[in-house]
Amino acid sequence: MSRRSEDLQAFLQRVPIVATLGMRCDVKGDDMTAVLPFEKKLIGNVAIQALHGGAMGTFLELTAMAQLFLQADVARPPRTINITVDFLRQGKAEDLYARAEVVKMGRRMASVRAEAWQAERDRPVAALLGHFLLR
Amino acid sequence: MDPSDLADREARIRMMQAHKAHMTQFVPWASETGFTVTQVERGHVWGVQPFLEKLIGDPDERVIHGGVITTMLDNLCGMACAAQLEELRFVATLDMRIDYMRPAESERPVIGEAECYHLTRSVAFCRAWAYHESQDKVIATAQGAFAINMPRPLIRPGEAI
Q: What is the ipTM score, two decimals?
């Protein structure tokens, strides 16, 4: 495991919301896929067994922050300036995966895109575009 | 619960107001984050998110993660739509934009407020705020569009789905 990847895993372990959500980050060098194993507590609509938009939004925001932490030489986790989440399909009662891409790395700010999917990578469930302050 | 109470908007708002304290009990992820609805008016819903250790996103400054605010505001917007629509319909979030003006303070509850300010036949437009005391010192503002689903046919017992 690379040094930066170890830093990320150590940080994720210290963040309570990561454990509450139940997500993990599979890291290979600077390449990362985040995984959110399905749990009943992530549901937002019991009648149609759909994941809560807020749970998917939290997962995508954390994925974007983690990818940024992997690539940027920062001591502290980035602070969110804003995010836009597009809900493209209903999140089913299944595992959710996400990947993020740093679109622009500035000196003080970064722009990150992230996408979440379930059974098919080409059928994204939700997408995020966020701006983050590097600290 | 008599379904006819939900069909008419004014009756629905009264119903939501009467049951506000346990409206989020039926939403697993909302129960997990622990926010509750505090006030319901036509097209307008308020809620409160308590500070909980398990929701911390920044362990050094001990503040709750932005995603917790996303969860509350998204959910309150959906309820604001229900308190604005003439007929009872399900809504689904199309998109949600959240701007963070300042971090939430540690150990303090966060108030959420959502307003459904415009309706078309198929889309509801909402805005929302998160703050400690008032909108003057806001933590986050949000803006979202919600798809209004067509009414679902009621399934009678014994009927094939």
A: 0.94
| CA–CA distance, B117 with B115 (Å, rounded to integer) | 6
CA pair distance A73, B7, nearest whole angstrom: 56
Q: Residue B27: give its domain's CATH number.
A: 3.10.129.10
> Per-residue b/e over A96-111, b at no fewer than 16 CB within 10 Å?
bbbbbebeeeeeeebb
Quote the CA–CA distance of B68 and A59 in Å, as a whole number: 11
Q: Is A67 helix (H, G, I), strand (E, B) or coil?
A: helix
Q: Which fold has domain A3-133?
A: Thiol Ester Dehydrase; Chain A (3.10.129)
Average pLDDT of chain A is: 95
Question: How many interchain CB pairs under 8 A, A with B?
Answer: 122
The residue of chain A nearest to residue B101, with distances taken between CA atoms, is A81
Determine whether the interchain pair B67/A57 forms a contact, defined as Cβ–Cβ distance below 8 Å. yes
Q: Which domain holds residue B27?
A: 4-148
- By CA distance, what is B65's nearest residue in A? A17
Residues 6+ apart with CB under 8 A from B43: B80, B83, B84, B115, B116, B117
- The answer to whether A108 touches A134, Cβ cutoff 8 Å, is yes
Q: What is the pLDDT of residue B158?
A: 60
For A21-44, the pLDDT digits (tens) are 999 999 998 899 999 999 999 999
d(CA A75, CA A11): 11
For residue A13, give every residue at least 6 positions away whose Cβ sits within 8 Å of its Cβ, in sequence order, or none. none
Asked whether residue B158 is assigned to any structural domain, the reply reads: no
How many CB atoms are located within 10 Å of the residue A48 CB? 13
- Quote the number of domains for chain B: 1
